[in-house]
Amino acid sequence: MLPTRPTAAGEGQRQLGLGDHEPIADRQSVLRHASSVPRSRRRRHGLEPWVRWWGACRPQRRPSSGWPAPNGIEAEVEVDEALQLALAAAEEASHAIRTRLSSAGLPLAAARAKGGDGDVVTELDEAAEAAIIHRLREGSPGVPITSEEAGAETSPGHGEGRGDGDVREWRWLVDPLDGTNNLVVGLPLVAVSIALVVDGEPRVGVVRDIVAGSVTTAVAGRGAHRDGRALSLGPPPPMERATVSWIQGHAVADADAATAVRRRLEDRCRRVLTTWAPALDWSLLASGGTSGLVLVDSEPEDLAAGLLCAREAGAAVLDADGGEVRAVGQADRLVAAHPELAPVLVPLVAA
Fold first, then answer.
1. 18 with 5: CB under 8 angstroms?
2. Where is this region: Disordered (predicted)?
3. Range list of β-strands (E), the chain
4. How many CB atoms lie within 10 A of CB 222?
5. Averaged pLDDT, 231-260
């Protein structure tokens, strides 16, 4: 049931454009309207109790950065705006890719080598990245972006105040085309991955399957969804019947050790799945398509959005010592699975 206004609003209620008994159907627009009223007028006309009712307390926005608010209040309206912005950016990137993509995929010759670790890049990566960066800069100026092809922007110092004079860093982590190596051989396993992180901890995540068109989303503390349907992990199978995704970064620090971990998994699991599209692996776990996931030396922009989706669907994300992983870059090796299965996977990834 939608909540109604506080009982004593009077003229202040009318200033908000609400009748005496109307339910509040659009929280975002009401918050914006209430926040635009000067505090002295809010008090004079009885608006201040109404604003406190919603917990808004007039977030002070820094003009150069738009959002997030730097005063320590993480208003729900800001999280919702971030999610909608990420969804729009992912859709534009997906459209940019689909309009350039033939049904047969790209020939291998269209790919260019990137670095010295065997990774590749195509014009589609660059087109998708340009679309995402344009939309994110337009919708959240001042929030730095780290993207797979463009690299990391320097933080301008905008963020969320802790109340002790320090400022937390808000940053977008973007993989504009996850699964490029699949695309160049015509394999339709590709995605767009966008996450908003605060000090490395994902707050908003969007994974869009470019070919299937499905979208997996998550907001910290508010669950994960696939095309609007809430996701929740079911009971895990025994290890011998489990399908576990394997994610390995291109520049893995110790290839022999990673190979040993994979062999241990293959000895214990029904199937070890390698898609070369990490964002889709995380999305599969969140939706229950796989039983678990093991990651070795993956890039932050590959895992941030998916990690949040899996965790919000109920997965435990642990490091090689069994400790909880909440931020990107916190561990080089990690496992993710139902809380009953994850501890069983941990010994298999320990060095």
1. yes
2. 1-25, 140-165
3. 112-114, 119-121, 145-147, 151-152, 159-161, 167-178, 191-198, 201-209, 215-219, 224-226, 229-231, 243-248, 271-273, 292-296, 316-319, 333-337
4. 14
5. 89
- pLDDT confidence bin for 49, thresholds 50/70/90: low
Token pair belonging to 257: 């050790």
Cis amide linkage into residue 339, ω under 30° from 0: no
Residue 317's beta-bridge partner residues? 336
Distance CA 239, CA 292 (A): 10
Q: Give, as one character, the DSSP assignment of residue 234.
A: -
Distance CA 216, CA 229 (A): 9
Binding-site positions read 148, 175, 177-178, 302
Domains and CATH numbers, the chain: 11-54 (no CATH), 76-231 (3.30.540.10), 239-349 (3.40.190.80)
What's the mean pLDDT in 78-106? 86
Rounded to whole angstroms, the Cα distance separating 319 from 159 reads: 28
Tell me the average pLDDT across 281-286: 98
Supply 45's token pair.
């006309």
Q: For tokens 């349907």, what's the residue?
A: 229
* pLDDT for residue 183: 87
Mean pLDDT, the chain, integer: 79
Angle between helices 76-100 and 27-36 (to 10 degrees): 120
The arithmetic mean of pLDDT across residues 137-159, rounded, is 77
Cα→Cα distances 8→5, 25, 86, 129, Å: 8, 19, 38, 50
pLDDT digits (tens, 9 = 90+) for 57-70: 333 333 333 455 54
- Cβ neighbours for 277, distance < 8 A, ≥ 6 positions apart: 178, 179, 182, 189, 190, 191
pLDDT over 70 percentage in the chain: 68
